[in-house]
Design goal:
The chain is mainly α. It is 81% helix and 0% strand.
Length: 85
């Protein structure tokens, strides 16, 4: 059996969600949480990665608009060339 220690307010909130949305079925509630994590958890990681990369770019002085435009053009040219070849 799973045992976790939650702050009282979080435990009460979770208990209410389980009662109201899962008819008190803790197993279904946890299974639903795990499905959501599997489906959307990668987005949280991506956001964290992008945030860290942005901070590093700012620390190093940023990127000019011209550089961004050049990279976009190169990417689009590669995409078009890859689909034609």
């Amino acid at each position: 059996m799973l045992s976790i220690n939650l702050r009282t307010d979080i435990e009460n909130s979770f208990r209410n969600v389980v009662q109201e949305n899962y008819n008190g079925n803790w197993q279904n509630a946890i299974a639903s949480f795990l499905k959501l994590q599997e489906k959307y958890g990668w987005k949280e990681q991506l956001l964290e990665d992008v945030t860290l990369i942005r901070a590093e770019v700012r620390r190093k002085g940023g990127i000019s608009s011209a550089t961004i435009d050049d990279v976009i053009k190169k990417y689009r040219n590669n995409q078009q060339g890859g689909s034609n070849g």
